[in-house]
């Protein structure tokens, strides 16, 4: 049976890639125009096109997205979203399910990809983890974005989790920025992305993608002395929910 299904799976993956690229080329011209409106206004416009991309591609390839809210959805406060990172699908899902406006923190290497790299560069806060000065510029840009009322999304593990543990240790960056700007943290979990698209290799599968929005963690009044405690608190909240969702 597996031998019979394998050719069908290959056809499915080819189809998914073609649809992905077709939508990308469709939205590339308006994104190019929007890029002239500046990093904030233009970036917000770009995300509406990216949301169209995601809302079209996911159902086209048989992936069902389900949102699960464990907090009051009426709050419009800018947040620093922290999300677990299991799959390359995480970024595509984020533009569909995260509340606008927001900007993710993204690896600078991705901007080198032809065509996609242009869209990527216009829609994320780029970070070069190998360059200390570049990291500092990224932090300043994120702080400036938050002051404009735009939320930030960070994967605090820093890289895709290839382990058998629910989470990898968190880096300090997200929590430092949250304290410095007094921006509440909202933990968000992508529960099924690792099953839909494995972190190693392009092995896409149809099915469900659950997104869990956990209650925000306030940071009002916290100082840098509280950073380790805050980081551990958010880690424990996310790990506990991940283990309960297995």
Automatic annotation (TrEMBL):
Catalysed reaction, written as an equation: a 1-acyl-sn-glycero-3-phosphate + an acyl-CoA = a 1,2-diacyl-sn-glycero-3-phosphate + CoA
UniProt-recorded Gene Ontology molecular function terms: 1-acylglycerol-3-phosphate O-acyltransferase activity
Pathway stated in the Swiss-Prot or TrEMBL entry: Lipid metabolism; Phospholipid metabolism; CDP-diacylglycerol biosynthesis; CDP-diacylglycerol from sn-glycerol 3-phosphate: step 2/3
Signal peptide: none
Alphabetized UniProt keyword annotations: Acyltransferase, Lipid biosynthesis, Lipid metabolism, Membrane, Phospholipid biosynthesis, Phospholipid metabolism, Transferase, Transmembrane, Transmembrane helix
EC number: 2.3.1.51
Residue intervals passing through the bilayer: 12-33
Superkingdom of the organism of origin: Bacteria
Leading EC class: transferase
GO cellular component, one term: membrane
Gene Ontology biological process terms from the UniProt entry: phosphatidic acid biosynthetic process
Alphabetical list of SUPFAM superfamilies matching this protein: Glycerol-3-phosphate (1)-acyltransferase (SSF69593)
CDD domains: LPLAT_AGPAT-like
SMART domains: PlsC
All copies of domain Phospholipid/glycerol acyltransferase, residue ranges: 79-193
The record's note on its domains: The HXXXXD motif is essential for acyltransferase activity and may constitute the binding site for the phosphate moiety of the glycerol-3-phosphate.
Family statement: Belongs to the 1-acyl-sn-glycerol-3-phosphate acyltransferase family.
The name this protein goes by in its record: 1-acyl-sn-glycerol-3-phosphate acyltransferase
Lineage: Bacteria, Pseudomonadati, Bacteroidota, Chitinophagia, Chitinophagales
């Amino acid at each position: 049976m597996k031998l019979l299904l394998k050719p069908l799976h290959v056809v499915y993956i080819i189809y998914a890639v073609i649809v992905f690229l077709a939508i990308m080329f469709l939205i590339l011209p308006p994104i190019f125009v929007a890029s002239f409106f500046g990093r904030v206004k233009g970036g917000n416009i770009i995300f509406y096109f990216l949301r169209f991309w995601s809302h079209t591609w996911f159902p086209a390839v048989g992936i069902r997205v389900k949102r699960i809210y464990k907090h009051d959805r009426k709050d419009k406060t800018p947040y620093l979203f922290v999300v677990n990172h299991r799959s390359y699908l995480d970024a595509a899902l984020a533009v569909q399910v995260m509340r606008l406006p927001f900007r993710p923190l993204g690896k600078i290497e991705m901007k080198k990809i032809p065509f996609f790299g242009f869209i990527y560069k216009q829609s994320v806060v780029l970070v070069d983890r190998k360059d200390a000065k570049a990291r500092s510029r990224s932090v300043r840009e994120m702080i400036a974005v938050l002051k404009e009322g735009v939320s930030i999304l960070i994967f605090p593990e820093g890289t895709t989790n290839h382990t058998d543990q629910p989470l990898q240790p968190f880096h300090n960056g997200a929590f430092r920025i949250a304290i410095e700007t007094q921006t509440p943290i909202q933990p968000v979990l992508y529960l099924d992305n690792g099953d839909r698209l494995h972190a190693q290799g392009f092995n896409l599968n149809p099915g469900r993608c659950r997104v869990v929005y956990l209650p925000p963690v306030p940071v009002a009044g916290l100082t840098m002395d509280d950073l380790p405690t805050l980081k551990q608190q958010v880690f424990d909240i996310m790990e506990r929910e991940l283990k309960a969702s297995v």
